[in-house]
Amino acid sequence: MAHRYWKLSAMLVSLLVLLATDAVGQNADLSSKKLQIIFDSAMIDFRDYRSAGGAVPDLSTDLAKLTCQMNTWANNVPMYVCYAQTALAGGDSWFRSIIDGAKTLQAGWTFKVTANGDNRYADGGPENCEVTPTEGPYIGQCPFHAQMVRQADGSASLYLWINSFSSPYLYHHPPSAKPVRKKEAPDCDDFCQNFKKVLAARTNSFAELGAPPSGEEVSPDASVTFSGARKCTITQTSRPTAGSDSSAPSQGTRFACYWQEESATAAETRFADLVARVQTLIPTEWPAHRQDESDPATGTQIVGWLAVEPGEKHDVRVYRSATSVSLNLTAWSAPAQ
User: Fold this and answer.
1) Which of 3, 118, 196, 204 has its CA 20 to 30 A from that of 315?
2) φ and ψ of 144, to 5 deg
3) Element spanning 64, H or E
4) Which residues of the chain register pLDDT less than 50?
């Protein structure tokens, strides 16, 4: 009897293992199929998703739920991007399955995978490809990047991007503009230090910067200054929320600095410099893109660039209109609905 009991138990255990293995295999197969769809779309510049505006494939798994969407680099190259914060075990499982799937589907690519403790980073593409810089990809740079970073609370932050393989905005990198190695923190200059102070202050609506009454100019004695800025202000702002109750906008606090240049060319130079600097200082999981607008009152063309924190609780924007340039950091009281 005992022999039959242990034999039955062993059969049940084997069946459970087989079912679990089959479920994992099916999940991996589904992820690989979706990943293949994304790679195929990247071959045609993501036209099927950019033109139709339909939902993009979701690379979530049972253990890691991600937000996936189309976005655009500052140099107008489209990219598919996913991000999430999840349990460390689920994040690790997702990272491994995505890398394994990418290696299988892109057998001709070279993948560089590095680890630092619980942190994982992977870049893939043609042999000897370089990592995409913050301003966007050029020809010969890796179109695939994935990362898992352990957070202070023990969770994992996940991030993935896949760049277009065929964008008309993909150029050869100008020899004179090759990416410069990032300076280490001790060499962080005045702009870097002041921007980091303002970015950190967003979590308490810039209160620690000694905010003056709404709309008044920040004192020259304030704890942050930006060279060349005509003035900096901290103001209250609002944005409409989705839904039937349009009379209840989301409230926020905005820190903004303004530059007035002598010509449109100088303003464009200032704008490009601010975007390049800010991109190296914001968190990597904040998707960024260029967004041109038209002033509804005057019809003036406004060139804009923005980076939005996942969940849209905070954002950073740079604008240029004629000879004026502005840098804006906004802390919202609630995420966008």
Assistant:
1) 118
2) -120, 130
3) none
4) 2-3, 5-6, 10-27, 176-186, 213, 215, 220-221, 244, 246, 337
Express each pLDDT in 25-59 by its tens digit. 444 565 788 899 999 999 998 888 876 556 788 89
Closest CA to 305 of 284, 326, 287, 290: 290
What angle is formed at CA 263 by the lines to CA 262 and CA 265, rounded to 5 degrees? Answer: 135
Contact 331, 252 (CB under 8 A): yes
Domain ranges of the chain: 25-175, 185-242+249-332
Q: Which two tokens stand for residue 330?
A: 């906004």
Give the whole-angstrom CA distance, residue 135 versus residue 73: 7
Q: How many residues does the chain have?
A: 337
C-beta atoms surrounding 94 within 10 Å: 27
159 within 8 A of 147, measured Cβ to Cβ? yes
Please state whether beta strands 324-332 and 250-260 pair in parallel, antiparallel, or not at all (unpaired). Answer: antiparallel
Beta carbons of 160 and 98 less than 8 angstroms apart: yes
| Look-up of token digits 């509804």 | 296
Can you read off the two tokens belonging to residue 135?
């301003």
What's the rounded Cα separation, in Å, for the pair 133 and 74?
Answer: 11
Identify which of 316, 296, 297 has the alpha carbon closest to the alpha carbon of residue 306: 316
- The β-bridge partners of 304 are 319
Residues 6+ apart with CB under 8 A from 98: 31, 35, 59, 146, 160
Calpha distance 159→83 (Å, rounded): 4
For 215-235, how does the pLDDT look when each residue is reduced to its tens digit (9 = 90+)? Answer: 455 554 456 778 888 888 888
Closest CA to 248 of 260, 238, 262: 238
